[in-house]
Specification:
single chain, alpha/beta, Sulfate adenylyltransferase, Rossmann fold, six-stranded mixed sheet, five-stranded parallel sheet, 31% helix, 18% strand
Length: 411
């Protein structure tokens, strides 16, 4: 099913389900269920249309269809289940039944109402195997799925208290409607999205510049994933601030580069998550999305270019994929080189992983061909200011970091 064009949101209509409370009396008497931060992110994304055409948490038919075929029952492509898990014992204590309106709360404050359309169970191991192509608990997405409570609650949600985004993320967070308006003001008729959960090294910079030229784009939209990550990933603050700094330092012209934040807890689902990223950025107004090596992967669970291959199996999604090979540092070429051009693969230095970490941790100033000195200096500032001395996610960071968002009390 395909009724979209490259400028339309997925499904043709941008979902917006926001109805701020006039007072706490508006939800007085509703059964309340407190939800964790991941569910808060998903309520926000559902309500503002990041997940269009979804209007709420999926029911059993959609979950099964998405797991089996990457499609909603409606026929639209969708690769990852969006579900609300609640323990059966909690549902029984609260007396929640199909047909009820439930108040979802966070930090003790009203967040969203949920019109309960279904309560169901799923085989979590089977679900994980279909979505992640593995059931190994070492995979962080599998671990997340196996940790779900034993019931899913489906239904449309309406956001009743809008989140307050904490610094420094407040400067970068936009709803799809706001971002579409901003891209329109910038005159970006062709916008290419860069999904990232990393501090930018030179390979990322070349990836963005190459995709910008290949797409003949008007601008590059850096869409940084902000949310729960595994230990060892970069801290969120370092990601957004260093990407923005590329433009501030003139490595991108002001009118062709913007950094934004997306509230999403990574699933590390490899090719499926690549499709998800494309659809979300389509909802943001992007016409193109770049995909490089091992997009959204983890470990050796997926092939280096599995995210390239999956798009060949799908219909036109209404957003163009810019598929690029790897950028690396080549001593023989004397600079950053492209896999499709460089003839020295045996001497390449991978710009990801251990090389960049050794630069950040080692105290030495990097060569411009690997990590820009301006980026390194800012990474170290972020480590001191936000990361308890480390630019990488630690258990302490996960416990004690400043929350990305808060939910204010109703008026």
């Amino acid at each position: 099913m395909n009724v979209d064009n490259s400028l339309s949101p997925h499904g043709g209509v941008l979902v917006e389900r926001v109805q701020p409370l006039r007072s706490a009396d508006d939800v007085a008497g509703l059964t309340a269920i407190e939800v964790r931060e991941q569910i808060v992110h998903e309520c926000v994304n559902l309500a503002y249309g990041f997940f269009s055409p979804l209007t709420g948490f999926m029911g059993s038919a959609d979950v099964a269809s998405v797991a089996d075929s990457m499609r909603l029952v409606s026929g639209y492509v969708w690769p990852i289940p969006i579900v609300l898990d609640v323990a059966d014992a909690e549902l029984r204590r609260a007396g929640v039944s199909v047909g009820d309106t439930v108040l979802l709360t966070h930090q003790g404050n009203p967040l969203a109402t949920l019109e309960v359309s279904e309560i169901f169970a799923a085989d979590l191991t089977e679900l994980a195997g279909k979505v992640y192509a593995t059931t190994e608990p070492a995979h962080p997405g599998v671990q997340r799925t196996l940790g779900y409570a034993n019931r899913f609650v489906a239904g449309d949600i309406t956001l009743v208290c809008e989140p307050v985004i904490s610094p420094p993320f407040d400067r970068y967070w936009r709803t799809p409607a706001q971002l579409r308006a901003e891209l329109d003001r910038l005159g970006w008729q062709r916008a290419v999205a860069h999904q990232t959960r990393n501090v930018p090294h030179s390979g990322h910079e070349y990836l963005m510049k190459g995709a910008f030229m290949e797409a003949q784009a008007d601008g590059v939209l850096v869409s940084a994933v902000i949310g729960e990550k595994k230990v060892g990933d970069y801290i969120d603050e370092a990601i957004v601030l260093t990407h923005e700094n590329l433009r501030a330092q003139g490595f991108f012209r002001d009118e062709i580069h913007r950094t934004t934040a997306l509230l999403w807890d990574m699933r590390y689902a490899g090719p499926r998550e690549a499709v998800f990223h494309a659809l979300v950025r389509k909802n943001l107004g992007c016409t193109h999305h770049m995909f490089g090596r091992d997009h959204a992967g983890v470990g050796d669970y997926y092939g280096r270019y599995a995210a390239h291959e999956i798009f060949g199996e799908l219909p036109d999604l209404g957003i163009n994929s810019v598929l690029t090979l790897e950028w690396w540092y080549c001593p023989a070429c004397g600079g950053v080189a492209y896999e499709g051009i460089c003839g020295h693969p045996d001497t390449k230095q991978d710009l990801a992983g251990r090389l960049i970490r050794s630069i950040i941790d080692g105290g030495a100033e990097p060569a411009p061909q690997t990590l820009r000195a301006e980026t390194l200096a800012l990474v170290r500032e972020c480590a001191d200011e936000y990361g308890f001395g480390s630019p990488f996610v630690t258990e302490r960071y996960l416990r004690e970091r400043t929350p990305v968002l808060t939910i204010p009390p109703p008026p």
